[in-house]
Specification:
Structural class: mainly alpha
Strand content: 5-15%
Helix content: 40-55%
Number of helices: 5
Number of strands: 2
Strand order of the largest sheet: 1-2
Length: 135
């Protein structure tokens, strides 16, 4: 079981289950949360959200706002990095697979068979883990 699955993520169902990651959320002591789309290569290598150039920009902005990264909960909507950093490509393939699945389910319904489940997006698979940390 992965660390993300311990948080409630559905890694075994995720189309990114073989991707780099996960980068787990980092809980801060304050009331604010910063959410990124998915981890950068730097975040993957450091196993921490918002590291590398984007992290430096974020930390600078937090300092200018009178706080620091220890007071902010930081996480990604998707905890693993899509291949080549192209989440839209993954989502496009999922849309195509689910369109085919809907066609299959129409035929199954006419035959009196149970429908097959849709393929979940990475966001849907990560959502339970993210919600557990930020609520």
């Amino acid at each position: 079981m992965t660390k993300a699955e311990h948080l409630g993520c559905r890694c075994s169902e995720c189309p990114l289950q073989d991707a780099d990651g996960p980068v787990l959320p980092q809980r801060g002591s304050g009331p604010y949360t910063v959410v990124g789309e998915y981890p950068s290569i730097a975040a993957i290598s450091h196993e921490r959200p918002f590291t590398g150039p984007a992290g430096e920009i974020l930390r600078k902005a937090l300092r200018q706002a009178g706080t620091n990264s220890n007071t902010v909960t930081m996480h990604y909507a998707v905890m693993c990095r899509p291949p080549e950093g192209r989440l839209e490509s993954v989502l496009g393939r999922l849309r195509a697979r689910n369109a085919e699945r809907r066609k299959q389910n129409t035929k199954r319904k006419k035959a009196g068979e149970s429908p097959l489940p849709m393929f979940p997006t990475p966001m849907e698979c990560c959502r339970p883990g993210v919600q557990r940390v930020v609520t």
